[in-house]
């Protein structure tokens, strides 16, 4: 006997959809400022400013992808084949953000190496003005996205992009100040490299989370052994096997398990108690549980 949920997958109750408005506002702010920073970077000759503009471009793409992903995730399935809906679109968008962040980091390093031995002219006044404006835009976007970063991996990807941009804006201000104070343009290159390292580190951290979801690892904070022990503690449950725990998308954890019950046990009560245990202890609302009488041969063991 099994128990599952017959939920449709076209709803908008997941974390990403709840924070779509944050992504929309941040996208508009970042897109507008990207144009300003790119033009100023080209005119001023600042690598730090250009690197930050490049990261802003990555932000525009990442935020746009995040917005599209939240829309796709809530779209009703018309094919009948997407039995889990399209929620994974948000995870793929986070993966795109990781690739963009790494790409920007590599670009900055290549440009910095190309400048070795040269003495570029850098317009520090433009750097300071645009760096200051960028800091304001990034802080506003940061505050917007911070409210949803803990709930949605998709929003977290966008949030980390803006965190890196905020550091980039601070770096532009620092580079402008150092170049103006010393007259040495090497500080522009040094700060650009520091921004590249910071962005790469943040990308790797987010990338590990994305891969964990795509590889269907147990959700963060839930140890399979502990979950199995909790199910074994349910009245009339003698054994638990074939327990699987994974994350569909942020805030949507899933579980399946086979429960071996004592003779005369009420399957309905066992299912209710087991489902309640997973829901209350681990926040798993979607669990598919199969109840098996002791000694049954109905469960065929697989090779994997």
UniProtKB/TrEMBL annotation:
InterPro entries: Cation_efflux, Cation_efflux_CTD, Cation_efflux_CTD_sf, Cation_efflux_TM, Cation_efflux_TMD_sf, CDF/SLC30A. The lineage of its organism: Bacteria, Bacillati, Actinomycetota, Actinomycetes, Micrococcales. It is a multi-pass membrane protein. The keyword Translocase does not apply. Keywords: Ion transport, Membrane, Transmembrane, Transmembrane helix, Transport. It comes from the Bacteria. Residues 225-293 form the Cation efflux protein cytoplasmic domain. This is Cobalt-zinc-cadmium efflux system protein. It comes from Phycicoccus duodecadis. Its main location: membrane. SUPFAM superfamilies: Cation efflux protein cytoplasmic domain-like, Cation efflux protein transmembrane domain-like.
């Amino acid at each position: 006997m099994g128990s599952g949920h017959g939920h449709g997958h076209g709803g908008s109750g997941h974390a990403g959809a709840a924070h779509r408005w944050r992504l929309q506002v941040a996208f508009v702010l970042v897109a507008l400022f990207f144009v300003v920073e790119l033009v100023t970077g080209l005119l001023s000759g600042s690598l730090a400013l250009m690197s930050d503009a490049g990261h802003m471009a990555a932000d525009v793409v990442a935020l746009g992808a995040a917005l599209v992903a939240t829309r796709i995730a809530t779209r009703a399935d018309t094919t009948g084949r997407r039995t889990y809906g399209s929620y994974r679109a948000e995870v793929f968008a986070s993966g795109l953000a990781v690739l963009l962040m790494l790409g920007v980091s590599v670009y900055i390093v290549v440009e910095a190496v190309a400048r070795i031995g040269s003495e570029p002219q850098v317009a520090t006044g433009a750097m300071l003005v645009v760096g200051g404006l960028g800091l304001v835009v990034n802080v506003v976007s940061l505050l917007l996205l911070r409210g949803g970063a803990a709930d949605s991996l998709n929003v977290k990807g966008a949030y980390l992009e803006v965190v890196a941009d905020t550091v980039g804006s601070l770096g532009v201000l620092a580079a402008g100040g150092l170049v103006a104070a010393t007259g040495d343009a090497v500080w522009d290159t040094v700060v650009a490299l520091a921004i590249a390292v910071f962005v790469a580190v943040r990308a790797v951290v987010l990338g590990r989370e994305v891969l964990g979801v795509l590889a269907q690892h147990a959700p963060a904070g839930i140890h399979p052994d502990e979950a199995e022990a909790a199910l074994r503690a349910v009245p009339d449950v003698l054994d638990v096997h074939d327990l699987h725990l994974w994350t569909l998308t942020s805030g949507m954890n899933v579980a399946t398990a086979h429960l071996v019950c004592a003779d005369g046990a009420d399957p309905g009560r066992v299912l209710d108690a087991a489902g309640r245990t997973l829901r209350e202890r681990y926040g798993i609302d979607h669990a598919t549980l199969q109840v098996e009488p002791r000694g049954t041969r109905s469960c065929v063991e697989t090779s994997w």
